[in-house]
Design brief:
The complex is a heterodimer of chains A (190) and B (135).
Chain A: H1 4-14, E1 18-24, E2 29-35, E3 40-45, E4 53-59, E5 62-66, E6 68-72, H2 81-90, E7 98-106, E8 117-127, E9 130-142, E10 147-157, E11 167-168, E12 173-174, E13 178-189
Antiparallel strand pairs in A: 1-4, 1-13, 2-3, 2-13, 4-5, 5-7, 6-7, 7-8, 8-9, 9-10, 10-13, 11-12
Chain B: H1 2-29, H2 49-70, H3 78-104, H4 109-133
Classes of the chains: A mainly beta (190), B mainly alpha (135).
Chain lengths: 190, 135
Amino acid sequence: MWYKPILWICLLLLWPLERARWVIAENSSLSVNGSTNINKFSCEIPAYDQIDTLTLLKVDKQIALTGNIGLKVQSFDCHNSMMTRDLRKTLKEKQYPRLYIRFLSLSEFPELTADPKQITGWVNIELAGASKRFEINYQVSTDDQKVIHLLGSRNINFSDFNLIPPRKLGGMIKTNDQLTVAFHLKMKAI
Amino acid sequence: MKKILISGFITGCILFVLSYGSLFLAVRFFPVLFTEYNNPLFNSDDNRDMLFYLHAFIFSFALSWFWDRFKSLFRGRFILRGLEFGLVYALIALLPVMWISFSALDVTIAMVLSWFGYGLMQAIVAGIILAKINP
């Protein structure tokens, strides 16, 4: 097994490659939208607190996307302090302070134009100690400042991560299992 | 003792239907009043649901004993006796508990007032039933 990395390097050096590296900017954000039987809620992480890079690599017809983002659960803001604390508790913030989105692949090498392009890709979402792979719908575009905008969204369930949606007053108030996760990554090519 | 238990049980059954029925309808038709309950202060899982739904019976048995002990102090028609009994309970038990709850817990004044009103209504209904079945 020790020779596998060497083989990969040789393969990468010999193969005609298309590659790109993008640095994620601090003003990237993530939102989680959900509902209960009495209201809707929208919780956001308005800014990303780390500098990470995503690497795209086209080998043959495969587009590998590597890199991940780790977001602090404590940074969630539901615009209502009680709801914010409730979400953090549900996501087991004390045990698992960060949620991770690990990027795995893209359906095609994105064309960077002002016109948003729809592509799909696979990610691994790790939340509250459980991890699950999802296909994400992306929209990719660039603006005048050459900032790359990667918008992704996906419906997930609390139960995908072995989490129990909160219920109050003996079940009279129930949070629905489904959540919509949307993120907006603003990146610069390097 | 038997009379206390029987009146407590009957009161408990009636209060169970009225309390949880009205709570269910309030959640359904006035959802905005309940948004503050999405708060970690309130239990989120189902391990205490049984205790929550037993409240009507715990309350009724306690009031049934209290009524039997002090019913001679309440005079007039059964409705008036029940009303006075409910108000006495609210003054000596509910008000201090609500006071300490508001001062110690992260809850809103509207929430505490709604608990007070809910408890007062329960005590008046219990008082009227107890005055009727155990005069």
